[in-house]
Amino acid sequence: MEKLIIATRASNLALWQAYHIKERIEISFPEVKVELNEITSRGDKILDKPLALVGGKGHFTKELEDEMLAGNAHLAVHSLKDVPTYIPEGLELCAITKRQDQSDVFLSHTHKGLRELPEGAVVGTTSLRRRMQLLEKRPDLKVKDLRGNVNTRLRKLKEGQYDAIILAYIGLDRLDLLKDIPYVEKLDFFIPPMGQAALGIEIVADNDRIREIAMSLNDEPTFICTKVERDFISVIGAGCSAPVAVNATMEQKEGDEAPTVSVRAMIGYPDGTHILHKSLTAPLDESDILGDELAQAMIEGGALDILEQAEKIAFKDEMPERL
Predict the structure, then answer these.
(1) Of all residues in the chain, what percent carry a pLDDT higher than 90?
(2) Is 188 annotated as catalytic?
(3) CA–CA separation, 299 and 180 (whole Å)
(4) Which of 10, 20, 39, 216 is surrounded by the most beta carbons within 10 Å?
(5) Catalytically annotated residue among 66, 82, 176, 285
């Protein structure tokens, strides 16, 4: 029997994702035995600082990639939103699973929804993207950083450290944690981050058998849409210390010969000001450069100046003074 080793983070959500992929592979390839190589990433260890101050999202993927490059795993399962646009030599992001619900969700024990929050209420999030979109709508709110795993964040909410917090719906749903929250509201006006609610399957690039197995997990519409999002982020040069939202969708209307791909993006300051919105649509066969085109359009609209200033003011209270 063949053996395939999956590298995964050791958090509850990451393990759910890895076991989900393990089950799918073993159903499709009954001759393959799948094992997990559980790793505690640096991003999981540093819980007292925003990710932007410890090097960003790559801290959730680097150790898994190192295990693959060392020959200790054949494949890694990532939340795609955590995967940097740069993939190390020798590895390949070859498959993306079908995207699920991308919503951000408002959670509270005392207030029914965002509109019901009183002036000056404390909302927990460390995401600059969420902070930007929240304060654009409700500049009267106070946003307080929120770190820790999902259970830690929910405990802090229950203890009353926050009037409300904002998290991704998909993780709460997969771990069946929504039932214990009195008030839950999907924030449909929020634009998601690159890759939200899809899993990225990264493999050792020179292994054709692993690529065959991984490609059985790929959802082509999701792959196309998330590539547009990742291309946009790559061209515009937005790191995790910049408030950026981008989302691509595919749609085929009745009477159309082929689907179209639409992408929308938003860039601004963390305080919800200096917001730049843009969107583009193209036929599917012309969508390969859509992310690049949207990034260039936003750059022409002043996006780079906004990003530069946004990075200067992001987490300024936590950052040491530079000499």
Answers:
(1) 83
(2) no
(3) 43
(4) 39
(5) 82
